[in-house]
Amino acid sequence: MSVSNRLRFTGDDGVVASQLLTTKLYIPQARALVARPRLVERLSEGMGRKLTLICAPAGFGKTTLLTEPDIWDGRSAAWVSLDEGDNDPARFLTYLIAALQTVEEGVGESAVALLNSPQPPVEAALTNLINEVAAIPDEIALVLDDYHVITADPIHEAVAYLLDYQPPSMHLIIASRTDPPLLLARLRSQGQMTELRAVDLRFTPEETATFLNEVMGLDLLVEDMAALEERTEGWIAGLQLAALSMRGREDISGFIKAFTGSHRYVLAYLAEEVLQRQPEGVRSFLLQTSILDRLIAPLCDAVTGRSDGLATLEKLEQDNLFVVPLDEERRWYRYHHLFSDFLRDRLCREQAGSVPDLHRRAYEWCGRNGMTSEAVNHALAAGDFERAAQEVERMGHGTFMRGGMMATTLGWMEALPDDVVRSQPQLCLFRAWAHLFAGQLDTVESWLQDAERELGAKEETGSILGEMAACRAYQARLQGDVPRTVELSRRALGALPEDDPVLRSLTLLNLGIAHRMSGHVEAAGRILAEAEEVNREAGNIHPTLVAICNLALLEMIRGNLHESARGYRRALRLATEWGAQRLPSAGLAHIGMGKLLREWNDLEAAEHRLTEGIELSRPGGIAEILLDGYVALAQARSPRGDLAGALKAIREAERLLERVRVPRLTARVSAYRAQLWMTGANSEAVDGWVQECGFGVDDEPDYLKEVEHLTLARVLIFQGRYDWAASFLERLLGAAEDGGWMASVIEILILQALALRAQGETEGAMKKLGRALTLAEPEDYVRTFVDEGEPMSELLHRAASLGIARDYAGKLLVAFDGGATLPAAVEATEDTGALSEPLTERELEVLRLIAAGMSNRGIAQRLFVAVSTVKKHINNIYRKLEAHSRTQAVARARELNLL
Description:
- Helix content is 64%, strand content 4%.
- It is mostly helical.
- Among the domains are: 3-201, Rossmann fold, CATH 3.40.50; 205-259, no CATH class; 271-385, Winged helix-like DNA-binding domain superfamily/Winged helix DNA-binding domain (Arc Repressor Mutant, subunit A); 695-825, Tetratricopeptide repeat domain (Serine Threonine Protein Phosphatase 5, Tetratricopeptide repeat, Alpha Horseshoe), CATH 1.25.40; 832-895, Arc Repressor Mutant, subunit A, CATH 1.10.10.
- A five-stranded parallel sheet has the order 2-3-4-1-5, with helices on both faces.
- A hairpin with a 7-residue loop joins strand 6 and strand 7 (333-335).
- Helix 24 (425-437) packs parallel to helix 26 (463-478) and helix 38 (706-718) runs antiparallel to helix 39.
- The protein is globular.
- It starts with a helix and ends with a helix.
- 45% of the residues are buried.
């Protein structure tokens, strides 16, 4: 088809300049309220191309962004604000020419004359216009705002013609809610188009903070802003509507948690700007499919009873109607969270009676297509509890105990009526497990007893008895009863079938953690290593990562901080390889790294890691991980002078304990709070803790209670009761040395040195401190010394003057003054990206032994391999590191942070 044929149309009676609404040609005066240099730079760079397309749903700041003057970079801007009336081609082109005339007087007059003829020759008019624009010496940017209102094909063809023959001095900018039909793929492939989409326009966390606190005049906490940014997905209009709704409210945090698409400002905006503008078929599709968390064409067809799901989803994406693609193939989608909330609210208002039937259609399709979790959710929503229970049972332990599913499963169990759960032993066990993982220990036993009753009534035997023992073993560990944990775990392993890798590996992991908790490091190491291997072979990602993290924690207990860091980094690397970066077990690895970074005095990085770990762990609902994270976060904030932030983290832990009610963990968090009180010199509160804690100097040393015991020793020193502290610490030291808890040995030696110093026994203090420094220096301990404050600073000055670990003591003294972390202690990543071929785990192990100065024969004996095998590993190391000697290999490895 020729250009002439494509552009032929019949206009109305013509549009003359005197009939134009001049306000449509004004550049909006609203200035961008938040500086967005990253977007301004992209738009400025794109001015040398033919087209800039800014395409996003309503309320994403498209027009506001274009009012930023820095975009134009010396160019003149011609602007047309389009509306539905501009679908007449002659009217559209007349406005376009009028906009250009605001920049260059008289341009396009011959084209206007042609357009006002009875049968406007559009091609001739455009040709004249293009020639006249090409003669303008200045560069011009033509903005067509709200282009989504244009539906007339002749206008799209005219704009396409303009783009084909656009003079170099002209740049076209289209702002639209939908993609215009303008052969965008061709422009994209030719590098002639700059695009900004919703993902680009949404506010970043920093922009959100500026907008809410500076522009909207609110004073929100960081976590509240983060929650609101996540809820709105950076949708600018959503943030503004939320800010308007928050004005005058006292409980801002509570409002943000409850903020949905049913709030009146959001509801009114989406109703007016989005829903009522849609054809009835699209409107019905949106409402009916709003019950789905994820959209795919066959599922939408099953729910709506129609057969146009694929075409409708494609149209929704093309129209930018608040749908978010979830895969590269554009098969799966979801609605923007607030839009989804709004649609569901409107569905319940208008078609409440149809909602259960829509959910029934959804769960039938999901059940047939292997989407078991979704089937459960829809069955529960439909009130079909029997079907939901069947789906839960069908899931089995492999899905049920996967990391990240614990909180979800607890929700399912709570939603099922008790009589439905009690009718099936396996459902009773599932509910017991769900309560167990959530830390609700006082309700676990009753569900286990219900399972036993149902089991007896049905005369069933088999693995269920082994599972009950495994569940009770897990409960015993959380309660701190290590002997019972060991007994029940062994009973479970004896009863569980060999072909049940999920429960067997979980039980093995529980047994290893119990030994670690009790300080039996050698036994714990053996069992945890076996647990890792078994879980890895079974494909159990979450338990595998938990095992690796517990092995890393064992190294921390042994005082081997660098080896511990390697373990946590290995867990994070495997999580990335397996696509499991968002599992709670990945959160456990981040928390472990955060604790190490805190010890190495990189407090900012530590807080970042710990915050990340807590966020990842929260959905899993595993109380132990969360509590460990909150306590470590408090310890990272306190040295930076953020005592309020530290206390807030402790309060979060205490709020969690109100729900999970685990006495052992409650005692530990209480001990850490007492340490903060000592930091703040709150003697009255410290005295109260001593009266209520239930621990005394006559207690037998027990690693399970070591935090509480060391806190008590600190309190005795704080209170000046040095003799009691000395006697108690000596017994704790003996137990720590016998158990191989070298991190504890270092801390106890430090406390002994402080107690002796306070009593004026300087020589004895120096001996204790000297031994602590000797043990700590290879692993670059920092905060364990520096946290003790001025008394420790005095001791370190004296140690340095006496030549006791002079260099190390000097580095620690630098840290007292806010100096940088120790060079060897900065967070290292095993950056094998610089290598064409990464080192294997065994090659890394050989490399570390080389760095330690061991001979080939010594390495072979250490690793229980032949010397020839060691030589083969060393040759591989040399090749990969491009080294020719041990010295070169070690130096290269240190450059890459491999050591």
